[in-house]
Amino acid sequence: MPENGRxxxxxxxxxxxxxxxxxxxxxAGALRELLELEVRPAGSVLFRKGxxxxxxxxxxxxRVRIHIEDEDRNEVTLAELAAGDFFGEMSILDGKPRSAxxxxxxxxxxxxxxxxxxxxxxxxxxxxxxxMLAAITERLRxxxxxxxxxxxxxxxxxxxxxxxxxxxxxxxxxxxxxxxxFIVATVAFIVFWVVYNTTLRHDQGVDPFPYQFLDVMNGIVxxxxxxxxxxxxxxxxxxxxxxxxxxxxxxxxNELALTEVMRRLDLLESERLPNLFAELREExxxxxxQ
Length: 290
Fold this sequence. Notes:
By secondary structure, the protein is of the alpha+beta class. Helices cover 61% and strands 16% of the residues. Helix 5 packs antiparallel against helix 8.
């Protein structure tokens, strides 16, 4: 507890954040002085997508969920963060609006680092900015992979929703008609029919040899199965076209996502980081003149 009575994040908790794990005692102590601790109950919204951001968060305890809404307004969880994780780092690099919403999913103890304090600290420990860039790249890759998998699940759900009761019945009948169960059941029924009408009833059964009624029943079953199988095959063609569309959408999304990742990296490399280091050098120059 410092002299002003403000609670501080413990050094152990600070070093549990990979971004600051390599800091020395002096640097870690200086950073700890810049952090402001907050305790938030479960269900609290820390920030929403589109809001202006100017700080990043370190999690000392509890859990925080990062999420967005997709085109269908369904909630998509991008990450479930726990003690030792950090988030909101993009806002202190570019000062732009938040790209996702952060909600406390389990009572959390958070340390908040504002953008001015971050600039002040990176001036003394520039390796932190490079570690943050690597972390941002890894998160972009993770988000791309998750969104690609989600597209696959959504298209499968669409395929399921498009099925009518008749479609499901046709698929079920076709699946049974092309199985060993159907073959065994058919053979067993024919054997039973022959034995019953010939042996048990001594050719006095309802369908004696040459079993004309059995032939009629087999013909009816074959006549019904043929169009049902054709219906199911036509639906299989629709499924194949849907899967082809899925593959195209996934490939297109991956290409766009990769382009966006490269654009952000180029932007960070060509504009954000030079501007950040220029601001830091200016602040350090002012400090040395004083």
